[in-house]
Amino acid sequence: MNTADxxxxxxxxxxxxxxxxxxxxxxxxxxxxxxxxxxxxxxVFTRRLPEGRRYGVLAGTGRVLDAVENxxxxxxxxxxxxxxxxVGEETLRWLAEYRFRGDIWGYPEGEVYFxxxxxMRVEGSFAECVxxxxxxxxxxxxxxxxxxxxxxxxxxxxxxxxxxxxxxxxHELAAVAASRAAYIGGFTSxxxxxxxxxxxxxxxxxxxxxxxxxxxxxxxxxxxxxxSMGRGTTLLVDTYDVAExxxxxxxxxxxxxxxxxxxxxxLLLVAHRVRQQLDELGATGTRIIVTSDLDEYAIASxxxxxxxxxxxxxxxxxxxxxxTCSMVYKLVARAESTDPSAxxxxxxxxxxxxxxxxGGRKWAARRPDERGETEAEVVGTGPVPAGLVDRQxxxxxxxxxxxxxxxxxDAARDRHIAARxxxxxxxxxxxxxxxxxxxxxxxxxxx
Amino acid sequence: MNTADxxxxxxxxxxxxxxxxxxxxxxxxxxxxxxxxxxxxxxVFTRRLPEGRRYGVLAGTGRVLDAVENxxxxxxxxxxxxxxxxVGEETLRWLAEYRFRGDIWGYPEGEVYFxxxxxMRVEGSFAECVxxxxxxxxxxxxxxxxxxxxxxxxxxxxxxxxxxxxxxxxHELAAVAASRAAYIGGFTSxxxxxxxxxxxxxxxxxxxxxxxxxxxxxxxxxxxxxxSMGRGTTLLVDTYDVAExxxxxxxxxxxxxxxxxxxxxxLLLVAHRVRQQLDELGATGTRIIVTSDLDEYAIASxxxxxxxxxxxxxxxxxxxxxxTCSMVYKLVARAESTDPSAxxxxxxxxxxxxxxxxGGRKWAARRPDERGETEAEVVGTGPVPAGLVDRQxxxxxxxxxxxxxxxxxDAARDRHIAARxxxxxxxxxxxxxxxxxxxxxxxxxxx
Lengths: 447, 447
What we know:
CATH class of the largest domain in chain A: Alpha Beta
CATH superfamily of the largest domain in chain A: nicotinate phosphoribosyltransferase
CATH topology of the largest domain in chain A: nicotinate phosphoribosyltransferase
Low-confidence stretches of chain A: 1-12
Distance between the termini of chain A: 45 Å
Helix content of chain A: 25-40%
Oligomer: homodimer
Largest sheet of chain A: 7 strands, antiparallel
Largest interface: A-B, 117 and 117 residues
CATH architecture of the largest domain in chain A: Alpha-Beta Barrel
């Protein structure tokens, strides 16, 4: 499944510039003030889910690990920072030596999350941790938004396969990450060759309307496609008249025709008509694939229709109305001094205008009720209550700068399916509602 | 301005895999059927603007030109296609030699567009043109969505500077393209260092709440920042109590303090209070920058507030409610045979389910009324009416495979500002409405 060994063509030499300028100016000011080496704890969390959503899906963790490993300041990057006078020579020397040597813990990829869940915790010196803020948030905010939409769509699709085909609707590299996140959220395959190349996701695709229009007659196009791809191919039947196209398709390919694709019109109605026609023509094994502007609601509305697979584009790669998450990366604790034994002090923004958060280094656990069903997301500081020790959610991802938790993409996908299944049943209702688990805080007063 | 010579670290070795698999399977079937070399015309257009929007903004053209130049199938890519059995050896040999050798015309970057505007036209053999569909749409759909949002925001901001700071809210490379599109749409600078590096966009940034929280007292953080960055820096004043912070900021930096930033709360109210306090403290030249969840409506609502600059993140990089455009890439004409002199035949999907389009190779012009004010977007096939010949919108971008229209980013930015200014005044109303220019079609019956 994992073909990453083939090469990393969609990666970039360094991730260090996927960074807001203020991370570097803060670094410089802290270096000069002697505070840069204070041990610090940053946490990634979101204050809320998108309106009406029942759960979030963490995706992008594997990409964060790659980004942290590749976060280094090469000579051309240092030259740029120097030419622009963004930081001074002392800071440039520090950056030239930069490697993250701290620790990262987090929810494993594919896990569900709720408001306040500390989905990632980055610990080290202030200097080494603050630099990672922008790229970590870029990855988690994007990928988790796509995975959440994908998860809702895969619930709605039941066991039917879902094809990701949104590359043309989003940035060409965001598309590759979107395919990856969609796969974690339960999609089956992608149209995007770069996603197949980079992440080993199964790729699919046969033809577009242009192929039919290129030929003098629809039948000529069908014949050309079947000769090239075999009778098991999928023929697109809505360029002209659907009924005529289905008849021509079965004539050309025979009843062994793999599938027909419908990309426009009233899919519910057309799918029923096409199924009946295919059956009458003896093509009882020919599948029907639908692909027109689907979202989770449209997928659900086709549950009783004779549809065998869904292709989803725009609504998937734009997060079905919520193209980003609102994850933030906040300093929650830092040492009183640069003395390695100095105790950590919990810190938090406290102004009156909202955006406050809870200070202190957090643990998280998912608590079951007496019947064993999950009933709450518990987030706390200080000691973990005995009953929750074995139910903690954060795992070690990076230890002293070394990635310790790489895994194949299928592991994240399997984890997501299991995590979603362990939620209360109302999690997969598509209607708007509150988060399916309440978040409870257990704050240690000494912290 | 243009520092592209510094290197291309956010580019990728080849763009050929930013492609839906069906482009390759269509290619193979057409090669075998002998139709692949039919001369073909594909056009990029959108059937509608996002609901309520008055105009679209074309962005990404420059990135498309890069992508077309770098669209080639390297050995590792060919190996991948072979291993996955996506196409056969004959097609792989064809792909190994692939270079686009056709012609591309289009609206110049930064130009406005309307439903039906043929914003890009790709002409050559079916084979060489069909392969470019996915990557061209990825770029134009993403970048134009961001530019449209940026343009509305820059209208709303009047002459006040706009800082793009959305990197953390979108995919890390989409963020770089978003900075570029925002700059075209009228933004002034970006927080994203990669956008500065790759496209020469001015970068800015000073500090976050974490920097204040790192220090024992807010005043210590301010002092550290001023010592590092000088009195002209921007101090963030809403970590604890805003009024206390403003007092401390002016005490530490003196009345020469460059700016204060407010990132939460009721910005209208807080900006007025902070302005009054700064003036009373003698810091009459200290500017106020606001940065909290702004969109074009929030920016407009602050028009009368003493605000000197806006920083915009989430709503910019997500297209302010419309994170993608609905541009499509359609075969509109193709030759009757592979004979180079064979005439072009207009083609179009004609099924009843919607998504129909107008066949034929198009021209476009923007028609003024008798007072010289722009009154319609005219799109046609066949001969261009004499009065519109000098008002045509498409320009040559690629000729026989060679890019002929590279330009600095500022040219696109200046063009956008001029194009928007030439529209009827209602173009810049933020309220929902119809496209500010109607699209009129002049279809040649012989075509």
